């Protein structure tokens, strides 16, 4: 037995050494391979050998090694992942704005899949899936025990096929059963309309390769209809992010030419970069001779703006909001954003597999890190007049297991709550009574407040913000009181 295990260990080490030798990513990867921890690799090889020799049934070598790679990468942070053939194909399709599935942005919580945000007009959105829902079962398969990647694979599939989800929802005593038909999800990246004379609304629901072109077309259409625009609302609520060039291009549409939009920093030299409001940073090589933003009216750079954000605004959305906030180009309104400020790089392993690896953090033009903190609005405004609804219960980056910390502030700021359980129950009860919010609709409370701000009218600020303001005043009063007290000098 010992001889057999030793042989398998040697084979395992040979396989691992072969993999390390074949990883020709760059000089840094080769340098890392030269300093591999041999003792730990021997342990890995021993386990490989034990499984091959002692496991109850035969296990395929490729499966073992693939799962080992997958587990190793997934242990780093919530956004790093091994991409098999199917996942890699879906990743490449995503930036084009289409894929087959249910249409939800998801994360993990307590071993279950948690809905971060349903994509507008998707099968999941139409079926009534809500942000904050926990998916506990996929058809007859319990979610607990599956990785997020495995759960996502089960939710993806062929068009017009059905999947039954078992949902746990706050303030619901019984599980909710939803049967959803998978469809090709075609996300309409940009929507817009003139709300009333002089004021327009433009929404980016996801940052894709066509986003900059679509934005330019929408802005030109708005100015054709309303040449004397007095105010513009850019809506990034529930926008989960997407491609970086899209974020740079949307920012560049409203900022002066050539200013820094976002910077990145990581271990590798090529992860230390600054991206500017220039054509080469937001157009593909195929479109390098054409700049969609060059045809925009000059007034776009100066029109008063409000940017609407919420907990579902992540990644590329936060880059745009952060840049416009730093340059004081727009008033950011809504609730604190998701806080996904990390860069993922795709390293291809073979023709149809890859690793998605977190390689850097994003920083706003003023050097603020978005990671695990997000963008705090200039004006905190709840989702409704009664409170922040289910938005207040949504998962944020800082809530994700093994999330990357914010290097600018190692101490996580605690979110003040009067009574967390009581507040969650109150918000969930309000949410049950209310119809799903249609962004840009007549009942869009935050949009109304944005228009009020652009017109110079009073804005109804967040009830939580008012409470925090009272707390701050109380603290200041206590400090003033303490100044009047007689103190004994320390010796």
From TrEMBL:
**Family annotation (PROSITE patterns):** PDZ (PS50106)
**Region of interest called Disordered, as start-end residue ranges on this chain:** 456-491
Q: Where is the composition biased (Basic and acidic residues)?
A: 465-483
> Which positions fall inside the PDZ domain?
88-156
Q: Extract the GO molecular function terms from the UniProt entry.
A: endopeptidase activity; serine-type peptidase activity
Q: Which residues form a coiled coil?
A: 404-433
Q: Which InterPro entries does the record associate with it? A: ClpP/crotonase-like_dom_sf (IPR029045), CtpA/B_N (IPR055210), PDZ (IPR001478), PDZ_sf (IPR036034), Peptidase_S41A (IPR004447), Tail-specific_protease (IPR005151)
Q: Name one GO cellular component term.
A: outer membrane-bounded periplasmic space
Q: Does the keyword Acyltransferase apply?
A: no
Which SMART domains does the record match to this protein?
A: PDZ, TSPc
Sorted alphabetically, the keyword list is: Coiled coil, Hydrolase, Protease, Serine protease
Q: In this record, what's one Pfam family? A: Peptidase_S41
In its UniProt entry, what is this protein called?
A: Carboxyl-terminal processing protease
Return the similarity comment.
Belongs to the peptidase S41A family.
Q: Name one GO biological process term.
A: proteolysis
């Amino acid at each position: 037995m010992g001889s057999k295990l030793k042989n398998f260990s040697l084979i395992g080490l040979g396989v691992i050494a072969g993999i390390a030798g074949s990883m020709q990513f760059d000089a840094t990867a080769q340098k890392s391979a030269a300093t591999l921890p041999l003792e730990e690799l021997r342990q890995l090889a021993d386990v490989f050998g034990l499984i091959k020799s002692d496991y109850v049934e035969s296990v395929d070598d490729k499966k073992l090694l693939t799962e080992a790679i997958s587990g190793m990468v997934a242990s780093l942070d919530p956004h790093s992942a091994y991409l098999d053939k199917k996942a890699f194909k879906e990743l490449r399709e995503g930036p084009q704005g289409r894929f087959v599935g249910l249409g939800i942005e998801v994360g993990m919580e307590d071993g279950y899949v948690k809905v971060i945000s349903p994509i507008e007009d998707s099968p999941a959105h139409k079926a009534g899936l809500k942000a904050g829902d926990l998916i506990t079962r996929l058809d007859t398969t319990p979610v607990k025990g599956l990785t997020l990647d495995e759960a996502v694979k089960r939710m993806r599939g062929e068009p017009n096929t059905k999947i039954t989800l078992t949902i746990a929802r706050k303030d619901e005593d019984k599980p909710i059963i939803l049967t959803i038909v998978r469809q090709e999800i075609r996300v309409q990246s940009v929507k817009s309309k003139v709300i009333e004379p002089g004021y327009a609304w433009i929404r980016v629901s996801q940052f894709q390769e066509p986003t900059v072109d679509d934005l330019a077309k929408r802005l030109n259409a708005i100015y054709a209809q309303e040449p004397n625009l007095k105010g513009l609302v850019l809506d990034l609520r529930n926008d989960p992010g997407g491609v970086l060039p899209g974020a740079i291009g949307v920012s560049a549409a409203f900022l002066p030419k050539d200013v820094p939009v976002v910077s990145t920093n990581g271990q590798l030299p090529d992860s230390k970069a600054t991206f500017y409001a220039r054509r080469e940073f937001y157009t593909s090589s195929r479109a390098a001779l054409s700049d969609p933003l060059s045809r925009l009216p000059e007034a776009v750079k100066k029109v008063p703006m409000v940017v609407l954000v919420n907990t579902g605004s992540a990644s590329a959305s936060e880059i745009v909001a952060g840049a416009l906030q730093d340059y004081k180009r727009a008033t950011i309104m809504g609730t604190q954003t998701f806080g996904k400020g990390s860069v993922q790089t795709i390293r291809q392993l073979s023709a149809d597999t890859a690793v998605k690896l977190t390689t850097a953090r994003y920083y706003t033009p003023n050097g603020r890190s978005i990671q695990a903190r997000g963008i705090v609005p200039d004006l905190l405004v709840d989702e409704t007049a009664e409170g922040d609804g289910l938005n207040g219960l949504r998962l944020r980056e800082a809530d994700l297991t093994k999330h990357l910390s914010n290097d600018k502030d190692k101490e996580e700021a605690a979110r003040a709550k009067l009574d967390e359980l009581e507040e969650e129950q109150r918000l969930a009860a309000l949410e049950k009574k209310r119809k799903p919010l249609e962004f840009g609709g007549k009942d869009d409370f935050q949009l109304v407040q944005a228009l009020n701000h652009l017109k110079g009218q009073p804005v109804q600020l967040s009830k939580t913000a008012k409470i925090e303001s009272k707390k701050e005043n109380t603290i200041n009063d206590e400090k003033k009181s303490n100044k009047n007290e007689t103190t004994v000098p320390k010796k």
